[in-house]
Each structure stands twice: as C-alpha cells, then as structure tokens.
Amino acid sequence: MNSRLAAISPSLIRELNRRKQPGDIDLGLGEPLLPPDTSLLAAALGWLEQNGCRYGPNAGLLEVRETMVRYLGYPGLEHPDQICLTNGAQEAVFLAIKAICDDQTDEMLIIEPTYPLYHKIAQLEAINVRNVSLPAADNFAFAADTILTALQPQTRLIVLCSPCNPTARIASEPMLDQLATGLLALANPPWVLVDESYHEIFYTAQEPPRLAKHYPRTLVAGSLSKSNALTGLRIGWLLAPLPVMPATLKIHQLLLTSASIFGQRIVCEILTRRLLTVHRPYYDEQRRSFTSLLERHGIPHLPPEGTFYVLAKLPTAWAHDSIKAAYHLLEKFGVVAIPGRAFGAAAEGYLRLSFVAPPQLLEEGVARLSRFFAAS
Length: 376
Fold this sequence. Notes:
Blueprint: H1 3-7, H2 12-18, E1 25-26, H3 38-51, H4 62-72, E2 83-86, H5 88-100, E3 107-112, H6 117-124, E4 128-133, H7 144-149, E5 155-161, H8 173-184, E6 191-195, E7 218-223, E8 236-239, H9 245-255, H10 261-272, H11 280-296, E9 309-313, H12 322-333, E10 335-336, E11 338-339, E12 350-354, H13 359-375
C-alpha cells in the first residue's frame, strides 16, 4: 500500500461525528441543512431530457463557463478558458496544488488556522509545507506582513481560505492589496490559491474582496456546496491564469474526464437566476441568534465575519488540549464541537462551533455547552 497514505491521519471531524449518539446536539456540522431548490434540479433535468447526459469537455460545458465569466466577475479571470468545472471545491484545491508544486523543489505556505485538507493533499503529494500562524491576540485577522516575512525562495504556492474555516475571518481589501504589492516586488512571485468556498456567506457591509483584483498570479477554488446547500451534488470550480490551465486539465482528465453535466447545468441555473447568495439572510439570522445565546451564557467567542462557524475560547483548564476537551464535551454533555487543534496549532485552546442546526437545537446545545464551561 501507498506509505504516504498510511502517514495521513484520519479526519478528526469525522471521527467525532462517528461517535455521536441519539440525543446528542451537533454543533460541529460543517454542512448546510437547508433543503435544495427543486426547481433548479427540474430545470437541469429538463435540459438533459433535451440534450442527453453525455461526456462533456474536460474543462466543462462552454455555455456554463461563459455564464460563470458573466456572473462571477473575477478580475483577470474573465475568460472561459480560465475555468475548470470540478468535483466540488476539494478537487479544485487538489488540482491547483498538484499542477503548481514540484515535490522535489517547491514549498507550500499554508495560512493557519485553516481547513486541514490543504495539509493532507500536500502530504499525499510529498510537497514540503510550512505553516504561517495568525495570532490569536489579533483574533486571527489576516496580516500581509506575517505572510510576506515567512516567504522563502522556494515558496511556490500560498494557500489561504477567506472567508476562513474555522476562524470566520475575512481578508480585508487593504490587506490583500498590501500582500499583492509585496508579492509583486519579488523576483519570482509565488502563486496564491484562495479557497472561496464560503464567499457568499458573509456578514460584513460589502462582499468579501478578491485577491485576483490585485494579484495576477491568483487561483480561486469555489463551489455551490455551502452557498446553495448542495454538498451532495459535488460541483465546484477552479479559476486560474491561462499558464496554469494545461497542467490542471491534464490532471482533471486523468481523474474524472469531466464534472457532472447535471451539476454543471445547475451552476448555470443558479448564476442566471442570481441565486448564489439566496441563503445569506438565513445564515445572518442564525448568526445573530447563536452569538446572542453565547453572550447570554457568558461563552467567550470571536465575532464571525463570514461562514457559519464561531470560534469559542475554551476555559483555562482545557486551553492546552482542545481535542481532549471536545471528546469530554461529547461524552459527558452530549455536544459535538470540533477542537481548534484540528485546524492547526494556532487554534489550540478553541472549539469550532457551527450554527447550521435548527434554532431549538442551537439553544439546547449552547445550554449544554454552558454547563461544560461551568464545570471546567
């Protein structure tokens, strides 16, 4: 068997969910629970009835990619040939890392705390990784100086997630501008992969800014999974500068041939009907209710700017072992929460909480969480 696979640790998030018992409250779930808009499915099915369900072009149907160009509006990523439809954002991230990084010479810089997928892909591909930890003292705010000072000559790819899972922070326009200016001053600027899986779920006055506006060596991973509660559809995309696309499409062709035609047609329907942000008001209300509950029970937490997560700060007794705290919370109080350590050492001392559950379950979950805090 592949020895690299044996070295990759199993998902801590899935392991905690596997131990969940009837009656437990799930505040760890990173998946929307809203039902899908079945009119989208019907429209896509109607198209298949007329056109069949055949193999498509490796990059995706041209009509879909042209629609994405019109409605997504990424600066510098405005041509259909710069888009590859993928099996969710997860494949998009994999394609970007594998296409860009040479395991013999290159290094990948990962901005933490963040989703553990990036580390595991790098481990699978034997790519050297260095972590850049955003300080908890600044509530894990993205900082250009922190990233720029960590660069080495061998740094080939920087990976950041904004809006960020798990911190719920959003990289600001000034920060992205400063980062781009610093990178462009280098003799050999690295590529930057931005995971925008939560781009449409934001609570700031303006939508999250896009690095591609400032930096031409930007790749973007996205999907419909979180924005439209379609995690099971497995449809996403990678947007990338033209020089990256030949390698990207070669890998994609070997893996999948092409993304689901049915899923691609749903992308087209959502974009033409302008439904990418249709669920944002719902999550905004959930956020307000959930953070109000946390405040009422005196549970310290970071105000979320996006996503459907909140980072809660653990009591001092558990501050150095969030994994043990999460298992104790589940076994003794019946609440699933994700330990901060799962997202990197920078988030040790925190729990990631999700507010996708129905309001009555959120209320009971926070009440149990409060009892855990009181007993610590």
